[in-house]
Amino acid sequence: MTGTLAEKIIKAHLVEGEMKPGQEIGIRVDRVLMQDATGTMACLQFEALAIPRPKVEFAIAYVDHNILQTGFENPDDHRFLQTFCAKHGIYFSKPGNGICHQVNLERFSIPGEVLLGSDSHTPTCGGAGMVAIGVGGLDVAVAMGGGAFYLEMPKIIGVKLTGKLQPWVTAKDIILEMLRRLTVRGGVKKIIEYYGPGVKTLSTPERSTITNMGAELGATTSIFPSDEITKDFFNRQERVQDWKPMQADSEAAYDENMEINLSELEPLVAAPGSPDSIKSVREVEGTPIQQSCIGSCVNSNYRDLLITAHILRDKKVHPNVSLHVNPGSRQVLETVTKPGAMYDIIQAGARLIENACNGCIGMGSAPASNSNSIRSFNRNWPGRSGTKNDSVYLASPETCAAAALFGEITDPRKLGEYPRIDWPEKFVIDDSEVLQPSSQPEKVEIIRGPNIKPLPKRGPMEQKLEGEVLIKVGDNISTDAIMPAGAKILPLRSNIPAISEYVFAWADPDFAKRAKEKKGGFIVGGVNYGQGSSREHAALAPMFLGIKAVLAKSFSRIHKSNLINFGIIPLEFINSDDYQKVALGSRIKIDNVTSTLRGEGETMQVFIDNGPREVKLILTRRLRDILLEGGLLNYTKARH
Ligand code: MIC
Ligand code: SF4
User: Residues 175, 176, 180, 182: what is their CA dihedral angle, to the nearest 10 degrees?
Assistant: First the structure.
């Protein structure tokens, strides 16, 4: 790996370690973003560090997830965040201003800088040449306090793009093709860097569609060069002063290489259940559809909405279909509304949904039982839509709009001539919904309604851990399965005692009750345990229920860090037989926890039903020390 763009940016930010794949490095963070569902905790954690103002160049909190106000909980959180941000030097994007990733790309991305965000789709800004990484809220809080961000130096995969997309084939189909080739774990411990002549054929928002959904590959981040096309985007955002060229050397050498000829791609979908269940639209054509949703942070930009408007112009949505459209930001909504394109969408019968996450996280727009929904979103794990046994297809906005018109999955190439999309000379620029921090912070009172409960604490690591296996799950279990979201549970994000009642609620509704009765215990998982979101609640709530360790075949990057951050030990099976044998109710005993963590050994002895087993404990000194302290907050406080 030499001369790659990701390497250059990391090198310029390196504060500790050697940039060899697999080695721990520390990097300086320039900017952070938070969103409301993870941000309330991140703010409480920042407060616990007792640092008055962020030490990074720019910090912002968005309200975009917990948007439905069906009770006091979400508005309590919004008000807490607004007052907290005003007092503590953090910018605040009001509810309705848009999805964090879309707004951040438009207004706050800076090529060549490092962005850390408490949301897994933070890599969206990689479309503008940033190293943008999704992490748990506590990592963001520590970075805001001036701490470096530590990660395992990833391998860099170079993806050469050649050719040009054919009409009706889109950036979404490029990332779906990546998911077809690599699956949801193909990007773990990797950065995906795009280069080659095909890059020039893609606009900045299209590039961001691709980097956004690199999260579904499990990648640390994804990045595009910053070139004349990026400059053009910054020009139309009236902030060309923030732009700079950034690209890999022409002779850059990648750790792994891939090539995609854009001319050969066709429209694709991810079939229900997982973002990597890829099929061509042709294969599933004719599948009846009852709902079509266009929006979410991966596909709700100006281009996506304008093409939707072109497709729907002077037509009507099929009588059996409910079409939901949500622009990614107020800027997108205003820019599309000005020339009248929004009218085309509304007259066709679409339901206009707020500029926010909405149905993507089950915050409204849940589909009916036994019905098919097609969505321009990025995730379709079972139940994520809010409906049990849901059947959600993921596709481009073009394919979603075609399905909305015909009532069944339809190859968008049948829609005729591909409309020409002209970018507006300038996007509508109005940052008035992003509030600046107060210039008189001493006068600001932070308002905590009854939904804001204090942070739960954990003491230092115990030498001996003992208990039962409280649940055993299979491969690729997402954090949505561990700590479900949706309109009922998401509003409890600031109230850990309340939200912990829902851990594994869909997989095993008795889990929380059992965990409390048994005074904690252990979780057993398969490969890629904890894939998906950055939500640290998938570690924090189990910690609250007394979970001491998770034994799995392997872990996703963000969730593994979150477990460590909250003092839960991630242990990996060496022998897959051990995974087979361990069962719900098996007794687990670890006698030498702290002494093993104090040493350097790469295994830990665990007794499973009295039988001694060795499991992998591959952790750096720093991560072992974090576990010994009982989590990152204790660790950071002890070192201030
Ligand atoms: C998601 O898409 O799953 C979320 C909701 O945006 C999460 C963050 C969260 O759970 O709050 C993510 O992607 O990190
Ligand atoms: Fe919001 Fe969905 Fe994007 Fe997560 S994936 S940030 S819920 S729009």
Answer: 30
State which ligand 1 atom lies nearest to the alpha carbon of 379.
2
Separation of 102 CA from ligand 2 center, angstroms?
A: 10
Q: DSSP class of residue 478?
A: B
Chain segment 208-239, per-residue pLDDT in tens = 999 999 999 999 999 999 999 999 999 999 99
The protein residue with its alpha carbon nearest to ligand 1, atom 9, reads 535
pLDDT tens-digit readout, 28-64: 999 999 999 999 999 999 999 999 999 999 999 999 9
Q: How far is CA 175 from CA 103, 278, 294, 517, 528, in A?
A: 21, 11, 17, 45, 20
Which ligand 2 atom minimizes the distance to the CA of 379?
5
Residue in 396, 428, 426 with CA at minimum distance from that of residue 413: 396
Helices (H) and strands (E) in the chain, counts: 23, 27
Question: What does the buried/exposed string (b/e) look like for 548-580 if buried means 16 or more CB atoms within 10 Å of the residue's CB?
Answer: bbbbbbbbbbbbbbbbbbbbbbbbbbeeeebbe
Report DSSP state, residue 64: -
- Say yes or no: CB of residue 485 within 6 Å of ligand 1: yes
Cβ 472 under 6 angstroms from ligand 1 = no
Whether 124 lines ligand 1, by a CB cut-off of 6 Å, is no
pTM score over 0.90? yes
What single-letter DSSP state applies at residue 246?
Answer: B
Q: Rounded to the nearest whole angstrom, what is the distance from the C-alpha of residue 124 to the centroid of ligand 1? A: 13
Measured in degrees and rounded to the nearest 5, phi and psi for residue 381 equal -65, 150
Residue 120 beta carbon below 6 angstroms from any ligand 1 atom? yes
Does ligand 1 have an atom closer than 6 angstroms to the CB of 118? Answer: no
β-bridge pairing 372-375 and 291-294: parallel
Three-class secondary structure of residue 298 per DSSP: coil
537 lines ligand 1 (CB under 6 A): no
Six token digits for residue 262? 């854009």
Mean pLDDT on 61-73: 97
